[in-house]
From TrEMBL:
The keyword Oxidoreductase applies. The keyword Ubl conjugation does not apply. Keywords: 4Fe-4S, Iron, Iron-sulfur, Metal-binding, Oxidoreductase, Repeat. In the C-terminal section; belongs to the prokaryotic molybdopterin-containing oxidoreductase family. This is Formate dehydrogenase subunit alpha. It comes from the Bacteria. Residues 8-63 form the 4Fe-4S Mo/W bis-MGD-type domain. The chain holds residues 233 to 933 of 933 of the full protein.
Length: 701
């Protein structure tokens, strides 16, 4: 008998999870990933967190989709459906790729040809490659003449991007998180990097160990506060009064950088006038931080030689999310804490390619490189390039799309690698919309909660199974190459997209994914000097970069801003309360988010053996004092309700949760947090208020 000796091979890759973008070395035996180590990438310097190191076995899950599926004629779409992998056979039948693609593309083109292209909407993915994002938005725009294309940035940093575009003319970070090495004062607000960007958190902690100032602002306590010189627990939803009180102090005490403002920013007088109403004494009670502490925070930030701000969803996921980010931008600009090493503005990106997907135009208001769809010159350039007239008005955002399905404006959708049935606010409303569609195509690696409502399911590739580029939170464009084959008949996403285009009447021909990159880069000056060949050679290049072989600019805005005037804009903000405040019926504040072991809706990490073993059941976290006061026991089943619905889950005691608050992670399908969340939108970023809802809790019956 022959003995088969399987050889372990190693491959350079990048982590598929968060926006830190750690470089990895993946070891395989046959088609199995057996080990993951960190490489010396610019973002991770050899480090990995628990997700990147131990979470990759999701790709080998027996629940991977391996064949195209078509909904059975007698299988109704039920909004209250709760399915598992084993239910696939009763609802779907296996199909050939030929039949599935004909049905998938045909269903979309039928709606286009009978109702009109505006009745189509597409959600692409921040987990996919830049090339997929580019092709996806092009498919919707060129194929259907609509801008109804969006992705999960709408649910994370859309308000930050709105404020950054308005304020500094660019939606990207001004400096990488490794700039913390050079900073004297690091301000972290509305972010929990130890859970959500763990490798980035190491740079913040190291800076604190070296004696630098670390200010951590959060309505919930967090581990990083143990390292902070300035831990600040403030009232949820009260960012604007707190930040405006800091700006007030800086102006009142003459700590602003007059010379920098005169040269680089407009709007200072209006800002100064507005913050007169926000003295620390007047705001202390509103934001829950003592007036003298507010003054100390302001002085520390303004007088440090180099201060930098990092923020997360706690800033952006509010009805006043854009205002929150405007305050941070103002704080940075009036103190001249931007455009130098160790200074700047950095919204920490959640998904591995949310920066790149946004850059590539996977948003309803801009083409690639954030060029407005309403700009006639820009539009005519894309019309020339793509050979058809394009939609002159903004498209629908994620939450608006679900509303448009309910009122009949949108009749068919194409969802690639996103899971709105779990990630959208007011989940019942979202699921009812998905069930109402005439035609839904889902392209994914798993039978996600969104796939429950599909007419056609196209089995796609996981990140380690396909070639492409990803742009991390630091503006570092990184290449990822396949390290294993997709299972069964699953295909690479970019190939599925090209065939969808061809079957929808588009004359699309790309020799390989590098050709897609080249076309995308031709529309994106930000990628000048970053060719596919260069990425194949170097693995990672930071944009912008001024030459074919030089390093990219880690710090931008060193000499003005990419706005029409070359100056930034200061925008005053008012106090806008959360959309629904606690009352007698719903006396608690519910906030939602991620946990260290699970990523977003859990589609990947719930199927990663070790990660799911660590956190395997849905929990609601509450302060032990509240648990005692309300007569509950830790570990008991409780029902949490808001005006949208209720879920039952296990009660966990957590001293980090402020009394009066509840925290629920949104990754558990067994008790989906988004049944409860408020769909009310920030008017600028159109992001829902995931971070604040009035709630009540009771023992489960
Ligand atoms: Fe992956 Fe983010 Fe963890 Fe790095 S920090 S290993 S990118 S999940």
């Amino acid at each position: 008998t022959k003995r088969v000796v399987e050889v372990e091979e190693t491959h350079d890759s990048v982590c598929p999870f968060c926006g830190v973008g750690c470089q990895t070395e993946v070891s395989t035996v046959g088609n199995d990933i057996v080990k993951v180590d960190g490489r010396q990438g610019p973002a991770n310097r050899g480090k990995l967190c628990v997700k990147g190191r131990f979470g990759m076995d999701y790709v080998m899950s027996p629940e991977r989709l391996t064949k195209p599926l078509i909904r059975r004629d007698d299988a109704p779409k039920r909004p209250d459906a709760r399915m598992t992998f084993s239910d696939i056979g009763s609802t779907f039948r296996e199909a050939t790729w030929e039949e599935a693609m004909e049905r998938a593309a045909g269903g979309l083109t039928d709606v286009r040809d009978t109702v009109g292209g505006q009745a189509i909407a597409g959600f692409g993915s921040a987990k996919g490659t830049n090339e997929e994002a580019y092709l996806f938005q092009k498919y919707i725009r060129q194929g259907f003449g609509t801008n109804n294309v969006d992705h999960c940035t709408r649910l994370c940093h859309a308000s930050s991007v709105a404020a950054l575009m308005e304020g500094v003319g660019s939606g990207a970070v001004s400096a990488p998180f490794t700039a913390a090495d050079d900073a004297d004062c690091i301000m972290i607000i509305g972010a929990r990097p130890e859970q959500n960007h763990p490798v980035a958190a190491t740079y913040f902690k190291q800076a604190a160990k070296r004696g630098k100032k670390l200010m951590v602002f959060d309505p919930r306590k967090q581990g990083l506060m143990r390292h902070a010189t300035h831990p600040v627990v403030f009232e949820p939803g009260r960012d604007v009064p707190m930040l405006n009180a800091m700006i007030h102090t800086i102006i009142d005490e003459g700590l602003y950088d007059e010379q920098y403002i005169q040269a680089n920013a407009d709007g200072f007088e209006a800002l100064a006038e507005k913050v007169k109403d926000f003295s620390p004494d007047a705001m202390a009670e509103i934001c829950g931080v003592e007036a003298e502490t507010l003054r100390d925070l302001a002085r520390t930030f303004a007088t440090a030689e180099r201060s930098i701000i990092f923020w997360g969803m706690g800033v952006s996921q509010h009805v006043h999310g854009t205002d929150n980010a405007r305050c941070l931008i103002a704080l940075s600009l009036i103190t001249g804490q931007i455009g130098r090493p160790g200074t700047g503005l950095h919204p920490l990106r959640g998904q591995n390619n949310v920066q790149g997907a946004s850059d590539a135009g996977l948003i309803p208001i801009t083409y690639p490189n954030y060029k407005s769809v309403e700009d006639t010159d820009v539009r005519s350039r894309f019309e020339d390039a793509w050979g058809r007239s394009l939609d002159p008005k903004k498209g629908l955002t994620v939450v608006e799309t679900m509303d448009a399905v309910h009122d009949g404006r949108v009749r068919a959708m194409y969802v690639q690698g996103e899971n709105p049935a779990m990630s959208d606010p007011d989940q019942r409303h979202a699921r009812a919309a998905l069930a109402k569609l005439d035609h839904l195509v889902v392209q994914d690696i798993f039978f996600t909660e969104t796939a429950w409502f599909a007419d056609v399911i196209l089995p796609a590739s996981a990140q380690p199974e396909k070639p492409g580029t990803y742009t991390n939170s630091n503006r570092q464009v990184q290449i990822g190459l396949p390290v294993r084959l997709p299972p069964g008949e699953a295909r690479q996403d970019w190939k599925i997209l090209v065939e969808m285009g061809q079957r929808s009447g588009l004359d699309w021909h790309y020799a390989d994914v590098g050709a897609v990159y080249d076309e995308m880069a031709s529309h994106m000056p930000s990628l000048d000097h970053i060719t596919w060949d260069r990425l194949m050679r170097e693995g990672v290049v930071t944009y912008p970069v001024a030459s074919d072989d030089g390093p990219g600019d880690e710090v931008i805005f060193t000499d003005g801003f990419p706005t029409a005037s070359g100056k930034a804009r200061l925008v005053p903000t008012d106090l806008v309360p959360p959309d629904e405040l606690p009352d007698a019926e719903f006396p608690l504040v519910l906030t939602t988010g991620r946990m260290l072991e699970h990523w977003h809706t859990g589609a990947m990490t719930r199927r990663a053996t070790h990660l799911n073993a660590q956190e395997s059941e849905p929990v609601v976290a509450m302060h032990p004092k509240d648990i005692g006061r309300m007569g509950f026991e830790r570990g008991q089943q409780v029902t949490v309700a808001t005006r949208r619905g209720e879920i039952t889950l296990t009660l966990r005691a957590d001293r980090d949760v402020t009394p009066g608050m509840l925290f629920i992670p949104f990754c558990f399908v067994e008790a989906p947090a988004n049944v409860l969340t408020n769909p009310q939108l920030d008017p600028f970023g159109k992001i829902p208020e995931f971070k604040f809802a009035a709630a009540r809790i009771a023992a489960a019956s």
